[in-house]
Amino acid sequence: MTDAGIPTVDVRDVPSPIPDDVVVLDVREDNEWQAGHIDGAVHIPLGDLPARVGDLDPEVRTLVVCHVGGRSARATQWLQAQGIDASNVEGGMAAWEQAGRPIVA
Fold this sequence. Notes:
CATH architecture: 3-Layer(aba) Sandwich
Distance between the termini: 30 Å
Number of strands: 5
Pfam family, one: Rhodanese
Largest sheet: 5 strands, parallel
Organism: Aeromicrobium yanjiei
InterPro entries: GlpE_sulfurtransferase, Rhodanese-like_dom, Rhodanese-like_dom_sf
CATH class: Alpha Beta
Strand content: 15-25%
Shape: globular
Oligomer: single chain
Helix content: 25-40%
Protein name: Rhodanese-like domain-containing protein
Radius of gyration: 12 Å
């Protein structure tokens, strides 16, 4: 949990491959997603999230990722207010790649 009270998860604690009981939600823009993303992630850009929140299952843990963690922290906070079990992936895709975790394009 961060100082702002937003639940976080370290990139090393994100299961790979992604199991059925976890959703990795990538809130980056289309060009960022196309450049490389976590295999099995769901892509909903941050600006589209309010219109597409119904695409997410509130019963499934959602791990939210962006480039470095700012957008995903905002998305996590908003999703929690909507009743979604969401956690921010600390450091985002930058930390994911730095940790040597696999990406697909």
